[in-house]
Amino acid sequence: MLNGVPPGLGVEAQSALTAPVTKEEVRRAVMSMKSYKAPGPDGFQPFFFKQYWPIVGDELWRTVKDAFRFGFSEVSLLETQMVLIPKVDHPVSLKDFRPISLCNVAWKVISKVLVARLRPFLQDVIGPFQGSFIPGRGTRDHSIIAQEAFHFVRKEGSGVGSLALKIDLEKAYDRVRWDFLESTLA
Question: Which residues cross the membrane (predicted)?
Fold first, then answer.
């Protein structure tokens, strides 16, 4: 079923991603956060962990390290609060709101450590036409690629049997077949 799926990360990347989390990785993640972001269910802002790192750093490191080693046995780490921010002055439907999730600081640190570990290997797993999450790539690049594709299709003689297709991926994840996604990621 997954014959068309490209191979995953190599041994080097797998080793880097699964290596034990160091205290320095956790400290860097904390220090890179904006100090006064809205707190999640834990009630803490990153400022607290920055200010009192010498006191709380070891405990946060153990929490993050254990999450990497054993999974999320402490379910409270995963708790988030959803807040709806109005997009317009007088909202009348849910589409008029932008949902944001307020996460616990420990969860944000776990995410930042993962991102820092994945960043060197992104080019190995993200194709050349993916624009999101890749430094130096953006919507402008894809507009140019689309123009080149249409130019190619319109060229005399080259349009025979050619097809240009624009796909709107707005809310694409609302339409994902979750059983397929889960089996692919398992």
Answer: none
Q: Residue 102: is it exposed, middle or buried by C-beta count within 10 angstroms (0-12/13-18/19+)?
A: middle
Encoding tokens for residue 35?
A: 């100090």
Residues across the chain: 186
39: exposed, middle or buried (Cβ count in 10 Å: 0-12, 13-18, 19+): middle
Q: Which residue has the higher pLDDT, 109 or 125?
A: 109
Instruction: Give the side-chain half-sphere CA count within 13 A for 56.
Output: 14
**C-alpha distances out from residue 52 to 55, 60, 96, 99, 108, Å:** 5, 11, 39, 31, 17
Helical spans, DSSP H, in the chain: 11-18, 23-31, 46-51, 53-70, 105-118, 122-125, 139-154, 178-185
pLDDT digit string, tens, across residues 13-65: 888 888 999 999 999 999 999 999 999 999 999 999 999 999 999 999 999 99
Residue 81 corresponds to which tokens in the numbers above?
């609060």
Q: What distance in Å separates the CA atoms of residue 164 and residue 153, rounded to the nearest whole number? A: 7
